Automatic annotation (TrEMBL):
PANTHER family according to UniProt: PYRUVATE DEHYDROGENASE E1 COMPONENT (PTHR43825)
Pfam families on file: PDH_E1_M, Transketolase_C_1, Transketolase_N
Reactions it catalyzes: N(6)-[(R)-lipoyl]-L-lysyl-[protein] + pyruvate + H(+) = N(6)-[(R)-S(8)-acetyldihydrolipoyl]-L-lysyl-[protein] + CO2
Keyword Signal: no
Organism: Massilia hydrophila
Protein name (record): Pyruvate dehydrogenase E1 component
Keywords for this protein: Oxidoreductase, Pyruvate, Thiamine pyrophosphate
One MF term in the entry's GO annotations: pyruvate dehydrogenase (acetyl-transferring) activity
Taxonomy, superkingdom: Bacteria
Function: Component of the pyruvate dehydrogenase (PDH) complex, that catalyzes the overall conversion of pyruvate to acetyl-CoA and CO(2).
Amino acid sequence: MSAQLDQLTAQAANDPDTIETQEWLDALEAVIEHEGTERAHYLMERMVDLARRRGAHVPFSSNTAYVNTIPAHLNVNSPGNLEYEERLRSWMRWNAMAMVVKANRADGDLGGHISSFASLANMLGTGFNHFWHAPTEDHGGDLLYIQGHSSPGIYARAFLEGRITEEQLLNFRREVDGKGLSSYPHPKLMPDFWQFPTVSMGLGPLMAIYQARFLKYLHARGIAKTDNRKVWVFCGDGEMDEPESMGAIGMAARERLDNLVMVVNCNLQRLDGPVRGNGKIIQELEADFRGAGWNVVKVIWGSQWDALLSKDKDGILQRVMMETVDGEYQNYKAKDGAYVRKHFFGKHPELLKMVANMSDDDIWRLTRGGHDPHKIYAAFKNAQENKGTPTVLLVKTVKGFGMGKSGEARNTAHQTKKLDDAAIREMRDRFNIPIPDDKLAEIPFFKPADDAPEMQYLHERRKALGGYLPQRRAKADEALSVPPLETFKAVLEPTAEGREISTTQSYVRVLTSLLKDPSIGQRIVPILVDESRTFGMEGLFRQIGIFNQQGQLYEPVDRDQVMYYREDKAGQILQEGINEAGGMSSWIAAATSYSSNNRTMIPFYTFYSMFGMQRVGDLVWLAGDIRARGFLMGGTAGRTTLNGEGLQHEDGHSHIIAATVPNCIPYDPTFGHEVAVIIQDGLRRMVQEQEDVFYYITIMNENYAHPGLKAGQEEGILKGMYLLQEGQKEAANRVQLIGCGTILRESIAASELLQNDWGVAADVWSAPSLTLLARDGQDCERWNMVNPDAEQRVPYVTSLMQATSGPIVATTDYMRLFAEQIRAFMPKDRSYKVLGTDGFGRSDSRVKLREFFEVNRYYITVASLRALADEGKIDRAIVSQAIQKYGIDQNKPNPVTV
């Protein structure tokens, strides 16, 4: 006797009153039949609640049976022409396969994926044909986060639609010459096509959740009508292992994001093998999402299973379905009908009787729900109409569906990109592709005539939904004016005598001015991650409010204070809590609103610099890919400015990370006037000129006096360096001191020591962007290399230093590598020394930290004197005198090693 029959027998044996039990079950059945499942659910919840309040132990389970959430009698059949849709899908499958295989026969190292789209084709076809709107006057358009590895199938569809040429298909993953197609969804490389990058895996689900919330934000604030739009995100079941995939599902439910639909393609396989070989990934995900408050719709079995399930009066089939693990299910689809009969239905005699009249081919044709257009349509319709909660569709499919023995349901499916002639013939026959035998070796693409009924149907369906997808808007239609630099007068002028402020305070003043601007004030999006008070930004709470769809249902504890915590349905601040990845995802949604919503938004995401670039570096790189426009403000930046917080908080490398993103414009300003000049020009470039760049600006919480802007300094600030103060004209020896951030002030102090103690004049240069200096130098160097006969270009920093004399000493609050970027562009006959904060941070005062990392005024002075000695300008004994005078410990360990 099987385990299932044993369980039924045990249940009956433990039931002291089987008649009463049956009466309760009959009553529930009657309620379902006459009043519907919602009424039955309500009654069950009331009974469970009563039982618990009376002390009964009712174990909680967020799982349902391993069957379709939508029962057969409530299924909604697809209204489409299924014959045409099946042929279109088959042609797309073929062309996607041909694209990848042809690319790898020509060059075996290009890679590509066939199996993911093969399992997704029905779902994508259903969405494109019946659900997903393109942007029109009446509809802002749905937003699609498409599973990255399915890109060949999207290209195959666009090819049939006439949006992609055969030449482009032939150049899949060959982009350098400008004729190819990107490996995955990359807006940077295909700016008119892909809406969103969805790789690295896990980033798509995370970004989609915050994108859905941002649509609610725009609607609540009256900036754009978004209530009829949906965000659809497709991801794999293996991808759900990424913490980012699941990390924000609680927020989605809490924010009632009923405009969000997550579709998890449960083909049970990752790259290496099963997702949950010993378990059931669909049940696991159901528990997670239902527990978080989502509308969960499982699409497990195709329509052919409905008749069998209707015969399953004793629940034996459902129990076997539940007890069978995913590793077994994968094996079934890698074998044949006879194997399934023996190893699945053979688990119980009653099941063998149930399929006795079915042939092995009939059993093989028992499809999974993800390959049934009716089941998919019903699930999509449920998601489209659901209100009040986000929806996740857990859709069971077969990895590599249609690839046969070459890859279908096999562990190698994900990596399979080279099919032999037999496999190609098998695929042609399985999907009835009209290509003759003598042409098979060429693996030709198939595209019927434009007047073929299937092609007309394809275009008609997209016309009914407003146009073709995916498509991307490269520029916003609206034109916004940017306030002039004079708007920020408060930080452009010198601080009053005796007054000291930080660059963070300067930034807040700039931001406050922008919020009041009549043209762009409403488009500013301040984004914070529970650090408003750290940055002195809590005054914005009352001024513009924190966005919350429910408003404020309580009286805040600090209501009697000027800067009380105010939440508002139309609030302007996005407060993400202790959540850097969420803050970055909100920033990306706002920074690409010009494209997604035809509304230019200007996000300022302010965070601890150590917990920004380092922690969400993959999202920062993605921001470059998605052509984001906005400001990332790295607060408490530098290795020595955040005294007392220690190793994990002190940032000495965020600018190194920022330098790796080509369209990130990084600055490390020292003074308020530099902050204002940089932000105003960033607004000009990103808002007025609609340039696809974004800014990373570091700001500090250290207070000091600010000299104010002098006429003519603007150009140097933006290019990356300008002369801040000049040393004495008449001096026997001279050095050039370069600095940025708060350490520039140590260079200023060192210039005074050099002059007063050693008679050495020092010119002090403020370098708000060493990275921009390096990029300019590299650009000149490259141009000169490939244009040897033309007039040779001189890097900007080189031109500045050539007009000076003496050694050059650059000091920053970051790793030496930061200032080493410009070494190649220093005059060849001059010494260039770099001081930086390599090593781990630690807690102490700023004075002690700068001594420890050897970037204070005394080390700068000694480095300058040593450089003069190396050039033979002074005696080396003077260096020793300086070391003794300033109390420098010659036996002190290198900070990198301790």
